[in-house]
Amino acid sequence: MSKDTYSDLRRGPSVGESDLAPPPKEIIAYELHGNCYLNLTWRCTLRCSFCPKFKNIWTVQGYDLRLHHEPEPEDILDAVGDPPRYREIVFCGLGEPTMRLGVLMEVAGTLKRQNANIRINTDGLANLLYGKDITPRFKGLIDTVSISMNVQNRKLYEQYCRPGLPDAWPAMLDFINKVKTQVPHVIITAIEGLPDVDIQECRDIASKLGVEFRIRHLDVVG
Question: Is 133 exposed, middle or buried (0-12, 13-18, 19+ CB in 10 A)?
Fold first, then answer.
């Protein structure tokens, strides 16, 4: 991968400046279903055709998640407040949290020392992005990793998820195999409602990989 290509991915998708206009108050942490979700970045290694931000929709369950800067660890921890009050603290947002891996790990370490239950929602491409296996860093800190597989095969993955890195589909499957040796709970999700997505085939992949499977629904976020 060229340095320029890597830099482009680190900046994230090419979205117009008007699309990234900051809201009146940035939301770093937001509460849903008794969980605290952390909004680290808008950047992502995918340009999913179904992602609301590419339709200039940044609102999740009433929370406007647009950011004009990426929050620092102290900002994130201040936004969380009292970790034990939540069932889970979830690194998520409308971007890929592992693109800020150093910040993620620093915040997770502090939260874990406060007995937080921590989940990462990810596209599973961190090893491909960084060129090494980063999953051992999760051991003892991350309780759950949820990977957005979305579909059942590489053709549909490239059609709908539009990865910015080559060989993303096999890299994502390899990430699942590696991360399940490091964290106690691994989930893969697929999207019901996308044309040609076979939920049973997705469920079968989860079974073969030895991880949990959950259904997400098209156009339902949060």
Answer: middle
All domains in the chain, ordered by first residue: 3-10+22-217 (3.20.20.70)
Tens of pLDDT, residue by residue over 108-141, are 999 999 999 999 999 999 999 999 999 999 999 9
Q: Provide CB contacts within 8 A for 85, sequence distance 6+.
A: none
Give the predicted TM-score (pTM) of the model: 0.86
Q: Between the CA of residue 76 and those of 3, 24, 99, 110, 118, what are the distances in Å?
A: 29, 18, 16, 11, 14
- CA dist 74 and 76 (Å) reads 5
- For the chain, the straight-line distance linking the first and the last C-alpha, in angstroms and rounded, comes to 34
CA pair distance 153, 157, nearest whole angstrom: 6
Tens-place pLDDT, residues 20-52: 444 457 899 999 999 999 999 999 999 999 888
Which DSSP state fits 216?
E
Q: Which of 88, 86, 70 is nearest to 28 (CA)?
A: 70
